[in-house]
Amino acid sequence: MNFQEIISQLESSKESRINYYFVTEEQNQEIYALLVHVMGYMDKLFLVEVVFTVLKELLMNANKANAKRDYFQRQSLDIQNPKDYAKGMAQFQENIIQKWNEQLEHLEGGNFYISLLMKVEGKNIHFAVENNAPITTEELARINKRIEVAKNYNDLSDAFADVSDSTESAGLGLVLIQLLLKNSGIGSERFRIHTNDKLTRATLTVPEITTPQEITTTLKTKILNEIDGLPPLPHSLTKIIQLCNNPDSDLNMIASEIEKNPALSADLLKLSNSAFFANRSQVGSIIQAVKVVGLKNLRNLLYVSGVRKIMEGQYGKVMDVWDHSNRCSYYARYLATEHTVTNKLADIIAVSALLHDIGKFLLLSVDRAFFKKIETFQRGTDSGNSTLLEEMAIGLSHPQLGALLAEKWEFPLDLRVAIEYHHKPFMAPSELRELVEIIYMANMMSDFQETKKGFYAIDKNLLAKFGLDNIEVFTNAVKKVETLYKSVSK
């Protein structure tokens, strides 16, 4: 896939067409990377996740449609004959869906194709997914039913509660598309499915102007009220933070304030003696620890200590969030060491990774069962950005909630940006993008280790930047850093 050639075609208002026999997860990964280029060229980067999610769903539907027709042909069944259709569909789940990895072998070099098309007209960009498998009357009726039903949903929680027909693409996927387009401001009316006796074509137009629809849900209101009700960071910590921010502060005075807090003193000594600071001799005093870690790292430790105190006081020890965050923090320090970042970034990397998911505490606190339902829906898949589902279900994603908390507690800008954009590094301010990219990659590597995400869900451009764009190299890197992490976590 030649990104520059495709961009050149779009610039000259020519139609760009990419053909497939079967769209694999690796090719979806390439499509995502391409969309970052295309939507960036159109100054619509903020819509990358929405457009990719829609296109991926359409490409998967085309895969299934072609695989089904190929199967019917191999079984000598007439897909237009009601009896043959019922017989073939009775075997569809067992012989196609459960043997999905075999479908590429069946379709490669065959008669069925899938095309992804793009074209720019003025400030509008048109997408289409086309395959040479016409929709049957029964399939079209099911699709139209789902599209019609989706109009009644305001958010994803309605869809989760109501969707019962999961046959092929007629379940949550079409509802997801309708909600995404409506709430993103693109508009569901700009999505169409056309069919004739030769092909099926789904089209999407992204207009010049999009006005996102604000999602108001009971959960969103409850969460925002929850944020308002959270206490400020403890005064004992903010006092030390202020001292750290004052270049004229006396280190002995700072050490004296820290010594009044046994838990903070223990955390500081542990940090100063960690491998990240590579000291030759054991650090035994608070004043020595302050000198070793520096005022910026000390300030960051204070933020972590304050957040832990508040969150555990309000919601108890949500260990799955902290366990993931601890792993992510270690992975981020590893990546920073391997890829030699500037000292300015090194000061904030570990704590940014440790606090990147603080928004999840709020989601879990107001409706743990529903949030876990979203996680389970995507677990182990190469589904890309999970935050879209949170936004559609609640009206806010956990990075957005984390940013609201960071603002409430007056975190420094670099920490707020890392929290807000850790799922969308390409949206981060350019001067902090390197920081956010490291947090993103550490988070995705942690998710991979925890079987929450697959390799092909990760941004291909960033994998290449970190030298991890080969699945074997990536897997070995995760194994290596996980072994190191476990050795220091015992």
Describe this structure in a few short sentences.
This is Signal transduction protein. This protein has 490 residues and is of the alpha+beta class. 61% of the residues lie in helices and 7% in strands.
What labels describe this entry?
490 residues; alpha+beta; Heat Shock Protein 90; Hypothetical protein af1432; 2 domains; 7% strand; RNase_Y/CdgJ
Please report which band the strand proportion falls in: under 5%, 5-15%, 15-25%, 25-35%, 35-45% or over 45%.
5-15%
What is the element string, with H for helices and E for strands? HEHHHHHEEHHHEEHHHHHHHHHHHHHH
Report mean pLDDT, rounded to a whole number.
85
Q: CATH topology of the largest domain, which one? A: Hypothetical protein af1432
Q: Which regions are unreliable across 5 or more consecutive residues at pLDDT < 50? A: 164-170
- Number of individual domains: 2
Distance between the termini: 45 Å
Strand order of the largest sheet: 1-2-3-5-4
> Total number of β-strand segments?
5
CATH architectural arrangement of the largest domain: Orthogonal Bundle
Structural class: alpha+beta
Choose one word for the global shape: elongated
Helix percentage: 55-70%
The major β-sheet equals:
5 strands, antiparallel
Describe the model.
- With 490 residues, the protein is α+β, with helices and mostly antiparallel strands.
- It folds into two domains: 3-206, Heat Shock Protein 90 (2-Layer Sandwich); 218-489, Hypothetical protein af1432 (Orthogonal Bundle), CATH 1.10.3210.10.
- The protein has helices at residues 3-11, 25-41, 48-74, 82-90, 92-95, 103-107, 137-150, 156-162, 172-184, 218-229, 235-245, 251-259, 262-272, 286-315, 319-338, 343-355, 359-378, 387-394, 398-408, 413-420, 433-449, 460-465, 471-489, and strands at residues 16-20, 114-121, 124-131, 191-195, 200-206.
- It has a five-stranded antiparallel β-sheet with strand order 1-2-3-5-4.
- Helix 14 (286-315) runs parallel beside helix 16 and helix 15 runs antiparallel to helix 16.
- It starts with a helix and ends with a helix.
- Mean pLDDT is 85; it is low at 164-170.
